[in-house]
Design goal:
The complex is a heterodimer. By secondary structure, chain A is mostly helical. Chain A has a single domain (about 5-75), classed as Arc Repressor Mutant, subunit A (Orthogonal Bundle). Helices cover about 80% and strands about 0% of the residues of chain A. In chain A, helix 3 packs across helix 4 (about 35-55). The radius of gyration of chain A is 22 Å and the shape is elongated. By secondary structure, chain B is an all-alpha fold. Chain B folds into 2 domains: about 5-90, Rna Polymerase Sigma Factor, Chain: A (Orthogonal Bundle); about 105-195, Arc Repressor Mutant, subunit A, CATH 1.10.10.10. The chains are: A mainly alpha, B mainly alpha.
Chain lengths: ~80, ~210
């Protein structure tokens, strides 16, 4: 049996699928009865999606055009 | 992985007049541009376009070292990350003021629950995240030292596996996992500090 602190420490790794089988099973067992840690796990999942959405940035058209032009020049160059 | 078969001629640019190789490089790099741009924006801000340009030139010259097309995303990313790191060093920015004290045990979830910033909310944690615009999140990320920000971006924004991040950053897997752990905790705590200091915790009238 692992404590809440131990479960919480491993939540992101758990969500990332990075935990070895034994530790993954221990986290799952903890989550099966601990509502607070379930809330924490759900929030960690939200936070991952939030980070991915907010950090990504659309490339401005003119920047894209200039980078494509660079690639074109490299291809055409000697 | 099907990658090996897609790209049979691994010897890329050995012949500088190899037009087919030059075309392959262009096609591979074009697909990666949006991704590379996002990484560069998060690492060097306004210098992102220059950093991507530099990385493309470096990659073009070293194209013969790319083993197969499937490795192109990680390969181009590692070149870009190095360019960005060099630029960061050259700029000699003031070291970030983040403190590491007690960060490993910080839990944003518990902090939000304990501090209860929106007493009338029935979805407290999601309401907390909704206060942040993209600019706010980028400002929070900018506060993380590169050592932690780079693996965070590569895993959570770019979707690289931690093993690939280890290869990209030239660090052992255990080190990458430890940096990711600390990076996540720093990110959580900096989100909270940012919300407190930028007035995001004032409940809006609905």
């Amino acid at each position: 049996m692992i404590s809440c602190a131990e479960a919480v420490r491993q939540l992101w790794e758990y969500l990332d699928g990075e935990l070895p089988d034994e530790r993954r099973a221990a986290v799952e067992e903890h989550l099966s009865f601990c509502r607070r840690c379930c809330g924490e796990a759900e929030f960690a999942g939200e936070l991952r999606g939030f980070l991915a959405r907010q950090a990504a940035e659309e490339m401005p058209h003119e920047v894209h055009a200039r980078l494509l032009a660079t690639l074109g020049e490299l291809e055409a160059g000697e | 992985m099907v990658a090996v078969d897609v790209f049979p001629e691994a010897d890329g640019m050995r012949d500088p007049n190899d037009r087919a190789a030059k075309e392959r490089f262009r096609v591979l790099a074009e697909r990666q541009l949006p991704r590379l741009y996002t990484i560069a924006r998060r690492l060097v801000g306004d210098d992102a376009e220059d950093a991507v340009q530099d990385a493309l030139l470096k990659a073009f010259k070293a194209f013969d070292r790319l083993e197969h097309a499937g490795a192109a995303p990680a390969w181009l990313t590692s070149i870009l990350v190095n360019v960005c790191r060099d630029r960061g060093r050259a700029k000699a920015r003031a070291p970030a003021e983040v403190s590491f004290e007690k960060v490993d045990d910080f839990s944003l979830y518990r902090t939000i629950a304990d501090e209860d910033p929106f007493p009338y909310s029935d979805s407290l944690h999601l309401d907390f995240l909704e206060q942040f615009g993209a600019e706010d999140v980028r400002a929070v990320l900018a506060r993380l030292p590169d050592l932690y920000r780079i693996p965070m971006l590569l895993v959570y924004v770019d979707g690289f596996a931690t093993k690939e991040v280890a290869r990209i950053s030239g660090a052992p897997l255990g080190t990458v996992l430890a940096r990711l752990h600390r990076g996540r905790k720093l990110f959580e705590r900096e989100l909270w500090i940012y919300a407190e200091t930028n007035g995001l915790l004032v409940e809006r009238v609905r």
